[in-house]
């Protein structure tokens, strides 16, 4: 039995409006892995908080200390500056952006990159080919079916991946064993409430901000409708969008710390930005003063929210395997 929240009906309406009724019918005829694959198969334009350049610069500043330096270069300079012949695996690599950035460092002899989405792997291969990157092996598949060799990798990357995993303990033990003793696990992920069941004070603040944003900034992707309220999703919405989404997200940090030692962890927020910008991010891509001031105001409200004792929904972390 699926729970239907007020947001489910609204979200379903817009998904059908954007993608047609075929989107709905296919969801009920697919197996679990295929539903997950279908959730990531299409590209529908900028609608995510991370599509906004100023958000990416903000996260770079938090993680690396420099708004123009992304974390792949930060990791390489801080932890692998004098290493050679490195091997890396990326789980849930998506369209391969971070993997290609890592591969530009000549110290990698091989990078394995795995994702369940055929479309995204094909896109990643095309991007790598266009940039003449030859040391990445992009593979279509589920990590739970993939045989990881013991003490094989110097670096394991989990970018927005672990929150899609059901058996965290089994997976993290597998990753621990596959890392070399001096290898690193790099995590950049959502670690907030399970199944996106947002906290009450979080929803109150997001909806208050949404109510104060000019209408021109609230037009949804691929429609002329206005985003007027943010709801916590019900189980039907989660099933239709992606049944793997945030399945055990609330357990990620505690489970990672069971199998790995913390080298560094940084709270990168997202509590407000993630919810607020969903489906309307394309309206915040401009560099005009009005847009920049509006985004800065939103950033400050998220900072205040985190400073008041609320846990960060997103974490960047670097870890070493426990012996």
Query: What string gives the helices and strands in order?
Result: HHHHHEHEHEEHEHHHEHHE
Number of helices: 13
Query: Would you tell me which CATH topology applies?
Result: Rossmann fold
Q: Regions with pLDDT < 50 over 5+ consecutive residues?
A: none
* Number of individual domains: 1
Helix content: 40-55%
CATH superfamily: Vaccinia Virus protein VP39
**Overall number of strands:** 7
Described by strand count, sense and barrel closure, the largest sheet is: 7 strands, mixed
Q: Which CATH class is shown?
A: Alpha Beta
How are the strands of the biggest sheet laid out side by side? 3-2-1-4-5-7-6
Query: Helix/strand-derived class?
Result: alpha/beta
Instruction: Tell me what the CATH architecture is.
Output: 3-Layer(aba) Sandwich
Based on CA atoms alone, the radius of gyration comes out at 20 Å
Average pLDDT over all residues: 89
Shape: globular
CA-CA gap between termini:
43 Å
The amount of beta strand, in percent, is 15-25%
């Amino acid at each position: 039995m699926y729970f239907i929240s007020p947001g489910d009906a609204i979200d379903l309406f817009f998904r059908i409006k954007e993608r047609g009724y075929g989107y709905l019918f296919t969801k009920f005829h697919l197996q679990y892995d295929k539903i997950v694959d279908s959730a990531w198969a299409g590209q529908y334009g900028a609608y995510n908080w991370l599509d906004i350049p100023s958000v990416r610069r903000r996260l770079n500043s938090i993680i690396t200390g420099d708004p123009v330096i992304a974390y792949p270069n930060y990791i390489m300079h801080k932890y692998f500056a004098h290493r050679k012949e490195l091997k890396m695996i990326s789980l849930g690599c998506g369209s391969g952006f971070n993997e290609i950035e890592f591969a530009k460092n000549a110290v990698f002899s091989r990078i394995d990159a795995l994702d369940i989405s055929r479309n995204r792997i094909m896109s990643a291969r095309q991007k790598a080919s266009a940039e003449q990157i030859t040391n990445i092996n992009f593979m279509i598949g589920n990590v739970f079916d993939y045989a990881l060799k013991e003490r094989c990798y110097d670096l394991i990357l989990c970018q927005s991946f672990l929150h899609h995993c059901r058996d965290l303990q089994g997976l993290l033990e597998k990753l621990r064993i596959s890392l070399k003793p001096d290898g690193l696990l790099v995590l950049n992920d959502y670690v907030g409430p399970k199944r996106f069941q947002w906290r009450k004070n979080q929803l109150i603040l997001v909806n208050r901000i949404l109510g104060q944003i000019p209408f021109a900034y609230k037009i949804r992707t691929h429609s002329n409708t206005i985003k007027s309220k943010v709801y916590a999703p019900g189980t039907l919405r989660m099933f239709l969008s992606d049944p793997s989404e945030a399945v055990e997200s609330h357990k990620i940090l505690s489970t990672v710390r069971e199998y790995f030692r913390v080298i560094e962890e940084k709270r990168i927020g997202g509590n407000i930005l993630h919810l607020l910008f969903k489906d309307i991010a394309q309206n915040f891509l401009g560099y005009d003063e009005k847009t920049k001031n509006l985004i800065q105001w939103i950033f400050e409200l998220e900072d205040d929210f985190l400073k008041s004792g609320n846990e960060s929904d997103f974490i960047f972390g670097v870890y070493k395997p426990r012996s």
